[in-house]
């Protein structure tokens, strides 16, 4: 690759990272975990799931706490909607973070290539002494 192409690629990766930075800094709150529908017997003797021998659906948040997976049953529509939004924000944040890590690794590789191109080696044709 020509020096000018390397320069262009390095510049373009940096501007990609600047765009990704906004995704990180615009996120003010987020919740780690996943909201999903859990189907099980709820344990309540008087519930229809026990009487009719069927599974009870409840929407829950699954999250990790001190290395253990915990479940929180979500009771209200507000709580469900809020946590759905919050967990999606967390997923986007993590995707964005991963993309930044990838871009930085690519930048380092390009910088190494650039270094090899522009370095003047003693004893070779382009020797400057
Ligand atoms: Zn039930």
Question: How do the strands and helices of this protein lay out in sequence?
Answer:
Elements: H1 3-26, E1 34-40, H2 48-51, E2 56-65, E3 68-73, H3 77-118
Antiparallel strand pairs: 1-2, 2-3
The structure holds zinc ion.
Residues 42, 44, 47, 49, 56 line the site of zinc ion.
Word description of this protein:
By secondary structure, this protein is an alpha+beta fold. The protein has one domain (3-118). The protein is built from 3 helices and 3 strands; from the N terminus they run αβαββα. The protein has helices at 3-26, 48-51, 77-118; strands spanning 34-40, 56-65, 68-73. It has a 3-stranded antiparallel beta sheet. The longest helix has 42 residues, at 77-118. The radius of gyration is 26 Å and the shape is rod-shaped. 6% of the residues are buried. The mean pLDDT is 92. It binds zinc ion. Zinc ion binds next to loops.
What's the gist of this structure?
The chain has 129 residues and is α+β, with helices and mostly antiparallel strands. The chain contains 3 helices and 3 strands, in the order H-E-H-E-E-H.
**Rg of Cα set:** 26 Å
Strand order of the largest sheet: 1-2-3
Largest sheet: 3 strands, antiparallel
Distance between the termini: 26 Å
Helix count equals: 3
Tell me the number of structural domains: 1
Features:
129 residues; alpha+beta; 3-stranded antiparallel β-sheet; 3 strands; binds zinc ion
């Amino acid at each position: 690759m020509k020096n000018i192409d390397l320069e262009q690629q390095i510049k373009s990766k940096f501007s990609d990272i600047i765009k990704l930075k906004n995704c990180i800094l615009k996120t003010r709150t987020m919740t780690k975990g996943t909201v999903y529908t859990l189907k099980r017997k709820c344990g309540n003797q008087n519930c229809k799931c026990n009487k009719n021998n069927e599974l009870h659906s409840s929407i829950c948040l699954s999250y990790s706490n001190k290395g253990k997976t915990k479940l929180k049953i979500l009771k209200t529509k507000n709580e469900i909607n809020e946590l759905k939004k919050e967990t999606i924000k967390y997923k986007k944040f993590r995707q964005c973070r991963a993309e930044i890590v990838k871009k930085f690794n690519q930048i380092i590789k390009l910088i190494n290539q650039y270094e090899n191109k522009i370095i003047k080696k003693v004893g070779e044709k382009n020797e400057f002494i």
